[in-house]
UniProtKB/TrEMBL annotation:
<dbReference type="Pfam" id="PF01968">
    <property type="entry name" value="Hydantoinase_A"/>
</dbReference>
<feature type="domain" description="Hydantoinase A/oxoprolinase">
    <location>
        <begin position="210"/>
        <end position="387"/>
    </location>
</feature>
<keyword id="KW-0378">Hydrolase</keyword>
<feature type="region of interest" description="Disordered">
    <location>
        <begin position="549"/>
        <end position="569"/>
    </location>
</feature>
<dbReference type="InterPro" id="IPR008040">
    <property type="entry name" value="Hydant_A_N"/>
</dbReference>
<dbReference type="Pfam" id="PF20906">
    <property type="entry name" value="S-Me-THD_C"/>
</dbReference>
<dbReference type="InterPro" id="IPR027479">
    <property type="entry name" value="S-Me-THD_N_sf"/>
</dbReference>
<dbReference type="GO" id="GO:0016787">
    <property type="term" value="F:hydrolase activity"/>
</dbReference>
<dbReference type="Pfam" id="PF05378">
    <property type="entry name" value="Hydant_A_N"/>
</dbReference>
<dbReference type="Pfam" id="PF06032">
    <property type="entry name" value="S-Me-THD_N"/>
</dbReference>
<dbReference type="InterPro" id="IPR048350">
    <property type="entry name" value="S-Me-THD-like_C"/>
</dbReference>
<dbReference type="InterPro" id="IPR002821">
    <property type="entry name" value="Hydantoinase_A"/>
</dbReference>
<feature type="domain" description="Hydantoinase/oxoprolinase N-terminal">
    <location>
        <begin position="8"/>
        <end position="190"/>
    </location>
</feature>
<dbReference type="InterPro" id="IPR045079">
    <property type="entry name" value="Oxoprolinase-like"/>
</dbReference>
<feature type="domain" description="S-Me-THD N-terminal">
    <location>
        <begin position="600"/>
        <end position="759"/>
    </location>
</feature>
<dbReference type="InterPro" id="IPR010318">
    <property type="entry name" value="S-Me-THD_N"/>
</dbReference>
<protein>
    <submittedName>
        <fullName>D-amino acid hydantoin hydrolase (Hydantoinase)</fullName>
    </submittedName>
</protein>
Length: 1207
């Protein structure tokens, strides 16, 4: 490049300031100490950002005495387009039509399914689907039919839409048929002038996320063109003829024409520009061998990212969220902490705390150095001599100890943030940029050196100026006729060609990213991802916006935009309070309690299923969307307890088999439903009585809810499955453990017309192997229906109540998010899973290494987690993990296999948990589970262990099939983590009706009074549920009781409600009430008072036993639910009661309604009672020879008084 074209101008338009710099690349190449920076300017961002750009660029041209002919380019980083989406600015967004290409799939999860309602209300237009789509091997699912496209065009024209998205299954790998491009040509012929966005040009594999990105892109196309025209007009006013570029999210550039075509690729360029600029200023922008960490400190937050040896930022994981929409295009991986120049500094409980609260842009008014009354991080920097703003004399009142403590706190925040973002355990250079960079200490833990480069406060504009261009390839290739290496070389060649097409100098091109990923369960297919980057060849650019020259004369383009239009108001569900929410339980005509699912239940089930998946099973997110939409269309999904099943019930079960790489393109479909239909036709079954899941872990945990919904078979879903977790193979089930050869006949269906029935097999393992081989030939994704099973098999061999457990785990996560207590979400899950005797926190640490390889279709590898020093405020409430310090290694084969701990000095290694026990890895930032695809360096995690069902451990066969040896670890001996506690069934569990502990504690004074009065009581007649005259004969009977308060209870009269006398309230914990911990039934506590009192019960008639035995309401079996655990579960009280008195009632106890029961303190497990009390309580229980039948037949004067018995 000659000196006449050596100057590059970079501009970054921020929310507060617009920064511009001029860089002479010739000077920089000569080793200039200023890195070629010859001028810079920081100006306030104006409402008309174009005017601000013009002002800033004019200022640098004048201050640098730059001749316009020497300017090679102007590169702008802008938040224009993302702001339009984030702010829901309806004047800048247009409605979008969506046309999907697939003959058999994509119908279950419609477009805009996971868009925020207010955004969808602005941009959602017509949605259609036609034949088309590809299979994962590149073959056509169906060819394009022109007549269908033409028919859709008529519908799009009728909606008067100006933009349409074309999205086909596996379109990014469509190199032969070019279906999206063909449909685009037809649409442009039928509707000239319409904007058409092909999804394969916007993003890569991952249909829903690619479609979402394409929709957002189409919505802002018109505004993008207008913005580019205005930028071009500003350039012309400056008499510049150089090309105009816009920075992309990945650190490279687009010319203005391309940016107007794919504006979404510029959404997150601001942070990228800062990172690129920092690396350039520090002289480590490209060509090095190591990465560097960039810390960009602003007024409120600090953003930390990693610059790779390529000079480009490390990208985030495959999926990111923009404006509430999940997308999958390149975005920088950033970690943010609440530290900035305006961060508040104060003393909290004797400790100095910095941030996350901030005075923001009011710094010059609020900070002490400017005469304000708020101590900020900037004040600390001035006090320490690191900054020269304001009047330092105003800080004389700050104690030196306070300043030093604040300094230490800032260091701790940055130490932790750098540790989270690091890409290796080795020390790395840390580069400081941004206006708040002066806050950072001279040394940061984990940093090889800390660099504060010159011009650090305009690094974002510098990053824009020095941006390069790229060519990207993300394709699936066959390795049947080429090696994996050859496939990779082909992808590299394609990337280089695309970089040259984007304007790169060929000899400057290097590979910035190269990945080769074999696909699970797919034969001879590999996904190759390559990015090639190079310097811009400015000689190829003359005036790239000449094609829009006609638009420059459009008077409307120069008119100021009108007042900002917000999104139309939409009706959204009120956020659910997870502490008070209770599921909907309805009693069927047959007297069966049925759990009727709603959207809240589905969301919690999805989160819980992923935890129980033990890193496998696939994400349930698409299943949630599919099931949610089913409910929104008026269908129902119901779950029942196994106790409600008839002895001769016909029970079908199954789920998905195949590659997750296929499901991310086809989305959720109805393959499993079709497999059920195929098997039912073969076996001659017209209907089914119930549905059960193959595995509760991952996406398959939600599949029976689809099959059993009223949209399809309208059959109840059994609360249970055959694994209690996720396993990689179909034959690793408790049914195969205890009753082999029960898997066939079975059927699989591809969802597009192909099905196979397997009628017999010599063993269970060959069934799985044969089906997987067929699956590969059927598109690598099928639904499966297994041989129908029986009620006896479910009860004897199933892992029961796992849907309920998943729901409860999801509720734990929701409660932790709702109450901002993510630090203790693992502890909550432990409690729900049965407490410390059943579940444990195994380890806490940071992922420092992930190994992955593919073998026989399964994702094998190992995860290594290193302990870290966590300064979390909630640490005091955490459980002590099984092991601390050192490292934890977790090998996986789709699911986690075992957890092996090594001490810090390496002197001792031991296995602390293994399959079949459950090992889950929770992300500390969200409280949710991480699956194998999400395992990534830097995540701070908590490892959780849960004891498996005894269905796996009570026989040698179970350990053989589900233990470490099944995964090839013959030297690993399974040792149970604890004692299994069967989850409580939501359909039968009245204990769900509880108030949060905090609300009960607020009433500690009343609880103490009640405790004193109730401690001596042995039992109380209690009634669950709302009082309705038509509930049953039993309810009518109870309402005829006279309830007389005891003299001792006069002090509680103010606590009694007016309608108290029509009910007998639930007393769950008579004993524990004295220790101020009482969990009360939902109806038993009002907002201000307890509505209970001790009482004598006097009956007006002698028909108790007849009414009791004949009541039809809520009849169900309670026998299986008996267990001796702590008293604080109402369900266990019920169990104890029925176990103790089933003989006394002289009726079939399985038909006793749950409306009423007699609570007795005859608990076998007295471990929760105070020392010295056990004998007294046992003696009282023994003395109480109360036969209910007899007692209620005696004359009223001779009946036993509960208070007397207690005394």
């Amino acid at each position: 490049m000659t000196l006449s074209k050596a100057v590059r101008i970079g501009v970054d338009v921020g929310g507060t300031n617009t920064d511009a710099v001029a860089i002479d690349v010739a000077l920089a190449a000569q080793g200039d100490a200023q890195r070629g920076v010859i001028a810079f300017k920081k100006t306030p961002t104006t409402p008309d950002a174009t005017a601000g750009i013009e002002t800033a660029v004019r200022a640098v041209i004048e201050s640098g005495s730059i001749v316009p002919q020497r300017i090679a380019s102007i590169t702008v980083g802008t938040t224009h387009f993302i702001n339009a989406v984030v702010e829901r600015d309806a004047r800048r967004l247009q409605k979008v039509g969506v046309l999907r290409l697939s003959r058999s799939f994509l119908r279950e999860v419609p477009p805009f399914s996971d868009f925020p309602p207010d955004l969808a209300a602005i941009i959602k237009g017509y949605c259609g689907i036609i034949d088309g789509g590809l299979h994962i091997d590149g073959s056509q699912e169906a060819p394009i039919k022109e007549a269908q496209v033409v028919a859709e065009c008529e519908k799009i024209k009728a909606e008067n839409l100006k933009a349409v998205v074309i999205a086909g299954v596996f379109s990014p790998i469509d190199e032969v048929f070019k279906q999206e491009s063909r449909v685009k040509d037809i649409i442009l012929r039928e509707i000239p002038g319409i904007d058409v966005v092909c999804s394969h040009e916007v993003a890569n594999i991952g249909f829903l996320e690619r479609e979402n990105a394409s929709i957002l892109n189409a919505a802002i196309l018109q505004y993008a063109r207008k913005t580019m025209r205005r930028f071009n007009q500003a350039k012309k006013k400056l008499n510049l003829t150089c090309p105009l570029f816009i920075t992309q999210n990945d650190g490279t550039t687009l010319d203005a024409t391309a940016a107007a075509r794919i504006p979404i690729k510029t959404f997150a360029s601001g942070a990228t520009n800062s990172m690129r600029g920092a690396a350039y200023l520090a002289g480590i922008d490209a060509g090095g061998n190591s990465s560097a960490i960039v810390v960009d400190i602003g007024g409120t937050t600090a953003d930390i990212g990693v610059i790779l040896p390529s000079g480009l930022p490390r990208q985030a994981s495959a999926y990111v969220t923009v404006a509430g929409v999940r997308v999958n295009y390149s975005m920088p991986h950033l970690h943010s902490v609440g530290l900035g120049g305006g961060s508040l500094v104060r003393s909290v409980d004797g400790k100095v705390k910095v941030g996350p609260e901030s005075v923001g842009h009011y710094l010059v008014e609020e900070a002490l150095v400017f005469g304000g009354n708020t101590c900020t991080a900037s004040d600390i920097a001035v006090s320490l001599g690191r900054a020269g703003m304001g009047d330092k004399s105003r800080l004389s009142g700050l104690e030196p100890e306070f300043v030093q403590s604040a300094k230490a706190c800032i260091k701790t925040l940055l130490d932790g943030a750098v540790d989270v973002i690091k890409t290796s355990a080795d020390p790395l250079p840390v580069l400081l940029v941004g206006g708040g960079a002066v806050l950072a200490p001279e040394d940061i833990s984990g940093a090889s050196k800390v660099i504060l480069p010159p011009f650090h406060d305009v690094a974002n504009a510098i990053g824009a100026a020095i941006s390069r261009v790229s060519g990207d390839v993300d394709i699936v290739q066959s390795t049947a006729h080429q090696t994996e290496s050859q496939a990779l070389e082909r992808a590299k060649t394609m990337a280089v060609e695309r970089a040259i097409q984007a304007g790169a100098i060929p000899e400057s091109i290097t590979m910035a990213n190269v990945e080769s990923i074999p696909l699970q369960y797919v034969s001879h297919q590999v996904r190759t991802i390559v990015k090639a980057v190079g310097d811009v060849d400015f000689r190829g650019y003359v005036s790239e916006l000449e094609l829009d020259a006609a638009d420059d004369d459009d008077e409307a383009s120069d008119e100021p935009e009108g007042r900002k239009n917000r999104a139309v108001k939409t009706t959204e569900d009120i956020p659910v309070d997870p502490f008070t929410y209770t599921p909907t339980i309805k009693v069927s005509d047959e007297g069966v309690p049925e759990w009727m699912l709603n959207e809240t239940d589905l969301a919690w089930l999805a989160d819980g299923c992923y935890v129980l998946g033990c890193a496998g099973g696939g994400t349930p997110a698409p299943s949630f969307i599919q099931l949610r939409d089913i409910l929104r269309k008026g269908h129902t999904i119901r779950i029942v307890d196994q106790s409600s099943l008839k002895d001769d019930a016909l029970i079908y079960w199954g789920g998905h088999m195949g590659s997750p790489a296929v499901s991310v393109e086809r989305l959720q479909s109805t393959e499993t439903v079709e497999a059920f239909n195929v098997l039912m036709e073969y076996l001659g079954h017209k209907s089914i009585d119930a549905v059960m899941g193959l595995e509760i872990g991952g996406a398959n945990g939600m599949e029976p809810m689809l099959v059993g919904s009223s949209r399809f078979f309208n059959a109840p879903v059994i609360d249970g499955d055959w694994m209690g977790r996720a396993y990689p193979t179909y034959w690793q089930t408790t049914l195969a453990v205890h009753k082999p050869l029960e898997l066939v006949p079975c059927a699989i269906d591809s969802g597009d017309g192909k099905s196979i029935i397997m009628t017999r097999a010599p063993d269970d393992e060959i069934v799985d192997r044969a089906l997987r081989a067929s699956c590969s030939e059927m598109g690598s994704r099928v639904g499966m229906a297994a041989k129908p099973t029986t009620t006896e098999n479910v009860r004897r061999y199933g892992v029961l109540n796992t849907c309920s457990l998943a729901w409860r785990i999801g509720r734990c996560i929701a409660r932790s998010v709702y109450s901002n207590q993510l630090s203790t979400v693992a502890e909550s899950i432990v409690e729900e899973a049965g407490g410390l005797k059943s579940a444990r926190v195994l380890f806490r640490g940071k992922i420092v290494e992930v190994e992955r390889r593919l073998y026989k279709g399964h994702s094998h590898g190992a995860l290594r987690i290193e302990a870290f020093d966590d300064q979390d405020d909630g640490e005091s409430e955490r459980m002590t993990p099984v092991v601390s310090g050192g490292t934890l290694r977790i090998p996986f084969k789709n699911e986690n296999i075992f957890a092996e701990h090594t001490t810090a000095d390496g002197s001792e290694t031991k296995i602390i948990a293994s399959v079949p026990d459950l090992i889950a890895v929770l992300d500390n930032g969200s409280g949710k589970a991480l699956g194998v695809p999400e395992f990534k360096y830097g995540y701070r995690v908590t490892v959780l262990g849960i004891t498996c069902s005894p269905q796996w451990t009570r026989t040698a066969s179970g350990i053989e099939i589900g233990g470490p040896k099944a995964f090839g670890y013959d030297d690993v001996v399974y040792k149970p983590l604890g004692e299994y506690v069967e989850p409580l069934a939501c359909a039968n569990d009245q204990d769900l009706h509880t108030y949060p502990r905090s609300e009960v504690q607020e009433k500690s004074q009343q609880v103490a009074m009640m405790g004193e009065m109730f401690t001596e009581a042995i039992g109380v007649i209690s009634w669950l549920g709302p009082a309705r005259d038509d509930d049953s004969n039993l309810v009518m009977y109870l309402m005829r009781f006279d309830i007389t308060p005891e003299p001792d209870s006069r002090e509680l009269e103010a606590l009694l409600s007016l309608f108290y006398w029509r009910r007998v309230w639930i007393i769950q914990e008579l004993y524990l009430a004295k220790s101020y911990v009482i969990w009360c039934g939902h109806e038993s506590i009002s907002d201000t008072k307890f509505e209970r009192s001790p009482a004598n019960l006097n009956c007006h008639n002698d028909t108790f036993s007849n009414d009791f035995s004949q009541s039809p309401a809520n009849q169900h079996s309670m026998g299986r639910l008996f267990r001796s655990i702590e008293i604080n579960s109402l369900h266990r009280w019920i169990s104890v009661y029925y176990k103790r008195f089933k003989e006394s009632f002289k009726v079939d106890y399985s038909k006793i309604p749950r409306d009423v029961f007699l609570e007795l303190l005859c608990q076998r497990d007295l471990s929760t009672w105070r020392r010295g009390e056990e004998n007294r309580w046992l003696q009282l229980a023994e003395r109480m020879k109360l036969d209910i039948d007899e007692d209620l037949r005696r004359p009223k004067s001779e009946r036993v008084n509960i208070r007397d018995v207690g005394g």
